């Protein structure tokens, strides 16, 4: 559906990511050789981590979603964020999975999702991005 959009992989973010990212690349390339795959630079990821920690974000590591949002803010004129919700239920009190693709719960010592969400709300209030909390309707398209 996204055509040949870039696939960003955190190959050098943490040791456990390297082999997995390379495996994805090896499987994907024969099937979709035209699909551009990019690996985040370890230097960029360290710099991004320091940037947010200096601004009070206290967590072991940034979530992949927060890394991508931060990168989008650097590269795009307009950033819209949907699906970044750190709570177990939505505004209508319906259950919300942590990931859309599995039933895993967040690792409570790894990510500080509510803290990241507060930063996104701050960026939204300053006009740096648009945070969408409700499902999109056909009127919004």
From TrEMBL:
Which controlled-vocabulary keywords does the entry list?
Glycoprotein, Glycosyltransferase, Golgi apparatus, Membrane, Signal-anchor, Transferase, Transmembrane, Transmembrane helix
- Tell me which InterPro entries the record gives: Glyco_trans_29, Glycosyltr_29_Sialyltrsf, GT29-like_sf
This protein's membrane topology, according to the annotation, is:
Single-pass type II membrane protein
Molecular function via GO: glycosyltransferase activity
Q: Name one Pfam family in it.
A: Glyco_transf_29
GO CC field: Golgi membrane
Q: What is its main location?
A: Golgi
Subcellular location(s) per record: Golgi apparatus membrane
Hey, which family's this protein in?
Belongs to the glycosyltransferase 29 family.
Q: What is this protein called?
A: ST8 alpha-N-acetyl-neuraminide alpha-2,8-sialyltransferase 7.1
